[in-house]
Write a structure and sequence with these properties.
The protein is an alpha/beta fold. The chain folds into four domains: 18-129, Jelly Rolls, CATH 2.60.120; 155-225, Glutaredoxin (3-Layer(aba) Sandwich), CATH 3.40.30.10; 238-350 and 478-557, 3-Layer(bba) Sandwich (FAD/NAD(P)-binding domain), CATH 3.50.50.60; 360-474, FAD/NAD(P)-binding domain. The protein is 26% helix and 24% strand. The protein is built from 14 helices and 28 strands. Strands 12, 13, 14, 15, 16, 17 and 28 form a seven-stranded mixed sheet that branches. It has a five-stranded parallel sheet with strand order 19-26-20-21-22, with helices on one face. Strands 2-6-4-5 form a four-stranded antiparallel sheet, with no helix packed on it. The longest helix is centred in the C-terminal third of the chain and has 21 residues, at 537-557. It is globular. Flavin-adenine dinucleotide binds at residues 243-249, 266-269, 273-275, 277-278, 281-283, 316-317, 346-349, 370, 391-392, 395-396, 479, 482, 527-528, 535-538, 540.
Amino acid sequence: MSRDENRPLVGHGLETDPLSDKVAFPRLSEEELAEVAAFGERHSFARDEPLFCAGDQPFNSHAILSGSVRVVDFSSGERLVLLRYGQGYFTGDIDLFTHRPSVVSCEAETEVEAIRLTPGQLRYLFTRKPILGEKFWKSFQRRRELLLLSRFRGLTIYGPKDDRPTLDAVQLLFRNSVPFNWLDTSAEENCVRLHDIRQNVRAFPVVAHGGRVLFEAPTRLQLADHLHLRRTLPDSTYDVLILGAGPAGLGAAVYAASEGLSTLVLDRLGPGGQASSTSLIENYAGFPNGVSGQALAHSSYLQALKFGADFHMPSSVSSLARQDNGTYRAETVEGDAVITRTVIVATGVSYRLLDVEGLETLQGAGVFYGATSVEARLCRNAPAHIVGAGNSAGQAAMFLSQTADHVSLLVRGFDLRKMSSYLAERLLANTKVAIRYRTELMGVEGTDHIAAVHVRESNGEVKREPTAGLFVFIGAKPRTDFLHASAATDEKGFLLTGTDVAALSVWKERRPPCTVETSLPRVFAAGDCRNATPKRVAFAIGDGVAAVTSVHNVLDAVAF
Ligand SMILES: Cc1cc2nc3c(=O)[nH]c(=O)nc-3n(C[C@H](O)[C@H](O)[C@H](O)COP(=O)(O)OP(=O)(O)OC[C@H]3O[C@@H](n4cnc5c(N)ncnc54)[C@H](O)[C@@H]3O)c2cc1C
């Protein structure tokens, strides 16, 4: 078939012809196809035979030698042909590397001859033919962006906005960049839609793919297993185990995997850490217009995957024990265990709870410790309250002011000196944000969801104010409890490292500790959980990288 006869057709599901995007859909030349052939196997498909189906895991990429294929989406409940393409194009998207199931199906439209490439073969091609490999990788990333811009729906989550399990499921999918659509069943039209596919719902959320209900009220682990966010961990010993996938853990993962270390990352929720709870990071070098925390985290996650790092989430580490042979064994709340030669603790911090009655029971039900698009949606055209005066509180106020009716920033002191000046100036100029100095949160009201806050004004008067969301950013506590005091910390629980550890009697090694090494030999700390570090994204990433340098040093010196 000649190239002109094989001109790709415009897909129905996307606004513009996706094939005009040459990054997403590059057409390989005859020479490039010949290069690709050396990495995979030739395969024939009969007309209408699937190359892979939505839900398949693992699935493969196919470079098409002759014939044409169509990409089909069933997630809206209808069969929708997204696009068709033929000779010289290749199939696949980023989930080849995330190890998650394919989100779309691909069928042979005619008889098809193709070169089949497994994810492992693709990764080999990336290292052996980097320029060609780059075409595949960039196209997989761009295809996902285009898919999310299209009418593609992905999983549908049905549940009301004041239902904690629903918000938990939404948070899990958001943090792991799983394409989904949340239909808030507090709105009548969404209730009707749900009724079409499931009646007599006893508990939320209902999780569906098109018209097919997959779960009613799944646990977090059921959902994670279904999405292949968790995998069976191998028995082998990792070179480095990274605890936490915030900026420090992701920075470490990219460097460790790119330098050939076998790397596993565990996180209790998904990639991003605190950074993914901020809509715009403006002080990270290289992004003059700022970058969303979730976007930065997602690209770092993909970068680490590209180099071969393993991720396993949600996975909350509950203990870390040194074994007789010097390796470490980590166990998780979810029942997993893993052995490693070295560990990087990058578990960051969590925001402190305010000591206000009723606050804890409303956590996640209108009381939040991060402000992402998920929470912003809950405050649309309604008032929101924020407690705190640091950068996190300031950013949350700026972000929420885009959707909320108005935002009250409750500041105990009488200035914004703890906040970066650029941010403080922006807040002062924002007419939707009221900065209320010398005010304190005294109480909250609500049963299933927060309804109102009680605020003490600077004159001592206590006011009741309706609210759709209370956001608390009042100082952080390190997440190092799982070490059960086996590693030395300062009085607040931040891990001591390097010279601070060298001075301690618990350090028994003959060599001095590396700069970021904790009092446990070959266990390093990076980012916010480490003592006396600037609590910033750029620093956390750099700290993760520094920890990998130390991992190299000790692995070179010790044989296991
Ligand atoms: C709202 C907000 C806005 C911010 N804005 C900016 C900004 O604009 N610029 C800037 O430079 N900094 C900003 N920061 C600070 C910045 O996000 C942090 O300094 C940075 O995220 C620290 O990275 P980290 O990897 O050390 O820790 P974290 O980001 O806290 O990540 C730690 C990770 O470890 C995981 N974890 C914790 N315990 C366990 C466990 N037991 N097992 C498994 N996993 C675990 C957590 O789930 C988390 O993903 C902001 C912070 C917030 C909250």
